[in-house]
Amino acid sequence: MKANSFLYTGALILMMLIFMQACVHEAPPFPPGGGIPTQTDKCDPDSVYFKNDILPLLGSNCAMPGCHDAITAAEGVRLDSYLALFQSDVVTPGDPSESDLWEVINETDTKKRMPLDKSPLTPEQKSLILKWIQQGARNNACTADCDSTIFTFSAGVKPILDRNCVGCHKTGSASAGVLLESYATVQPLALNGKLYGVSSHQTGFKQMPYGGARMSDCNINVIKKWIDAGAPNN
Ligand code: HEC
Predict the structure, then answer these.
(1) Residue with CA closest to ligand 1 atom 20
(2) Which atom of ligand 1 is nearest to the CA of 209?
(3) What does the pLDDT look like over 132-170, one tens digit per residue?
(4) Residue 118 CB neighbour total at 10 angstroms
């Protein structure tokens, strides 16, 4: 009995050591700036911002249900937040060639290229990711990306939907059968209250973007003003 419990204790300690070793070895790189979000009032046109540019792109192309959201975490990879990216160890700040995120979107083998079984990211989207990694992969944001005095469909609403929603709501990958690519399919949702309800996270509505943070008040305001004006095709 005694010898047995010695054996167990020994085995337990050994397992703990191996486990600790594994943890030390696999520790993800510490996120730049400790991952603490920073925000500037002006958007520098030469900078790429995580919150404005990268998160919406990942949210609508990668962190969808069944893929790299918090629930599914396909292959152990979560791309639904800044910290999740670093916990999943897919970005090496300043070094795209050492960043799995950059490699998988450029994979030449279409069976491995991300987003899996979908059309590749556009050159503009890829260049945003490249630049963001090169610029240090910071958890940055800027506030001046939205002007609530511009609330026509084409100049106000459409760019917001393109950036935050269309990745999950387009022909070929229409979550819940909802298409948000064009005026024709957006207008009915504007008039029946759903567009505003899901975007502003009103009670009784699903919260969109799915799995992501609520859009800025300014973005939501643009949508609201356009709807209040009768959701015209302007
Ligand atoms: C990451 C993918 C993703 C993004 C980004 C996204 N959606 Fe969705 N959307 C979904 C999924 C998944 C559902 C179905 C959710 C469910 O049934 O629980 C859905 C459902 C909806 C619905 C139907 C809700 C209902 O009750 O019928 C609307 C409307 C909608 N989304 C609008 C939007 C808008 C507007 C945006 C941008 C602000 C957006 N979505 C961004 C994935 C997404």
Answers:
(1) 176
(2) 41
(3) 999 999 999 887 668 899 999 999 999 899 878 887 888
(4) 16
